[in-house]
Amino acid sequence: MTSPFEQPSPHQSSFEGASEDFHLFENSPSTLAGNNVQYHDVSSHYFGCPTPHQLFMNDWQAFTECPPIFDDSSPGSEYPPSEYSTPSFHKIQQSRKNAQARAQSSSSTERRREQNRSSQRAFRDREKSLREGLRARVEELEKIQKEISSSYDTMKAELSTAREVIERLQKEKEGLEKKCDAMFMSKTAQTCSCSRSQRQAGQFYDPNLDLSDFCRTM
After folding, report:
1. How many whole angstroms separate alpha carbon 210 and alpha carbon 207?
2. In this predicted structure, what is the pLDDT of residue 105?
3. pTM, to two decimals
4. pLDDT for the residue numbered 2
5. 78 burial class (0-12, 13-18, 19+ CB within 10 angstroms)?
6. Which residue did the predictor score with more confidence, 168 or 58?
7. Domain boundary among 67, 99, 131
8. Among 99, 116, 134, residue at a domain's last position
């Protein structure tokens, strides 16, 4: 019987038997299924996860792979709600969720950064290709310009030479005309029939011919 000054423990509230009945089942793993008897070593049977107290005192990140913990609102919980419903445990659980959210955000940020880096590399490659193509085109145009300039200089020199030749021939022509006029004037007294119009038509005086055939067509 329980003393009137002694409150029944949660263990005894789950059984109709006396306290010794609790001790009979205390160390039995089978008591974990379907009742709330065993309080002292829940963590060793909960997939190797630490208790909230151990979790709070040590590294809470080790708990990230553990399954969700039941709270007081979960009816028929396999494990004692009181072990997993403390404010410190909820704080740890929230910290775990925050860490997972930060990890996902960090992963998304890193993916975006990698996409940006990839886009920047592609842009730089494209820019480099365009610059190289433009440089090659400029070099080609400069080469064509030099060829045109060289051809122009050559043609200019040839034109200057042609002008000099034309000027020289013009002077020679003028000299021949003066010579022909002088010869014509000297033969006038000998009744030369070669007129200026005939000379302009290509008829010149030939001193080897007789005076009667004084002019002939060249």
Report:
1. 8
2. 78
3. 0.30
4. 46
5. middle
6. 168
7. 99
8. 99
